[in-house]
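Researcher: Structure for this, please.
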Amino acid sequence: MLAEAICLSAFLFELERARSGNTLSWAYVFEWPILGVYAVYVWRKLLRPDTDSAGPTESPTPHVVSALDEYNRYLDEAHRADRPPLTDE
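Model: Predicted structure, token format:
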């Protein structure tokens, strides 16, 4: 995986700089492995999407259905003039 190779090489680069006296590089020494682990996590999450977030598995309650039907009727009436006229062919 390309992200892992980049994170590993950046980690090694920053580790060498930190050992030579650059104190700011110590922060990057710990940051790059964390970023690499996060890249693997996101990659796995993209390959196997969570089935629980696909949507509700239960049918909506009758109250919700009637509210949706009422709203759709409202939209139908409100935008009736926006539709092109029907032609008989």
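Researcher: Any notable elements?
Model: The radius of gyration is 28 Å. Residues 14 and 20 are 10 Å apart (CA to CA).
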